[in-house]
């Protein structure tokens, strides 16, 4: 049997955010995940926090006991930037996106996504995603609740633009993700449109004035650039006393698959059974319409289950294509009687299901180490780094430094044409920066300026950073 080789490593992230911080995206439908073509060779670091009794008065120089407190998970990714995939990292890091079609009539395949920083006055919990890592037959694991600690991007020479995404999880690790190697490979996108630094341009203008414009790309002056958003996650505070979230816990999950398109309008009866649930077994009526597909019916079942007060106080229902799952809100010992059944009422065409699949067994173990209940962001930080240009004439840069002139710094990456005048494009704008350092570097054959701009918040435009992405992706949230 051949040994597993590093080229067999596979990394996947859920396409959409988790419904809440603790609850992982179900792997019952592998298409709910997307393959990430990472260039690094990292895997998620799982680390325990422990203490011992070395300081106890026990007549011994050495500890005799160790106490497990909590678990932490971290993953660093290096990702080549593509027009399609970078939107997922931008949303994870910025927290908010608005999508529109700039010319739906003439160019229906073109979509514009504007990413802005999530309003901390509304919520400091960034979207959490579920991570899956696979290495041939040697390793297969799932890590829920991965939140963006930081995102950086850089370009140099004519190489592909790269992004670094640092993720912080709840500390939970599940061995055996439920996704096989073949299923994982099928989730890697094709036809990507990579951004190269040869496609980059940086333009600086006077803040909110548009004057004194300098185009470093068109002027053949640009060497390299980089920027970073650090979300300053308040990681240690995420371990909340009383949350009862532990490494050994498991929320029980029951799943059914809807089979058959409705041939007659009417009702279905869902029966939910669980020890400890008020009203168990509880019947819930679902109205469906002739022609409803299994996926549509699954969505209607979820809506009905989540609207029932008895069921929703005990479970969270979700669907993925034709699969319907109910997940216990609280971790508890496995309940062998738990069940989700589907019976025909007055509707026709749908296949009844009497017994659900026990997708995940329930468990509760308070001795297994606590995991996070949340991971909030703190005081976010922006940095522009590695901004290097040819030192053809440093008059403007030095004048900007000396006068503390407020500047609008805008990076544009422009790829191939999508339709008519629309191209794959990423624009990152920091509307207010001031130069902290402008230094000459004669280390290369052509002298260069190394510029260090300090980003500030623009109270006129009401943002510190904004990213606009134009591509053919219809949505990053649905």
What does this structure look like?
The protein is mainly β and 478 residues long. It folds into 2 domains: 6-56 and 64-235 and 376-471, no CATH class; 253-360, Immunoglobulin-like, CATH 2.60.40.4390. Helix content is 9%, strand content 41%. The protein has 5 helices and 25 strands. The chain has helices at residues 86-94, 181-185, 294-307, 309-312, 395-403; strands at residues 9-14, 33-35, 45-52, 66-80, 95-100, 111-117, 129-135, 139-156, 162-168, 174-175, 200-206, 214-215, 222-230, 253-257, 266-273, 282-288, 315-320, 323-328, 339-344, 357-360, 381-390, 407-419, 422-441, 448-455, 466-471. The strands form 3 sheets. It has an 18-stranded antiparallel beta sheet that branches. β11 (200-206) and β12 (214-215) form a beta hairpin. The longest helix is centred in the middle third of the chain and has 14 residues, at 294-307.
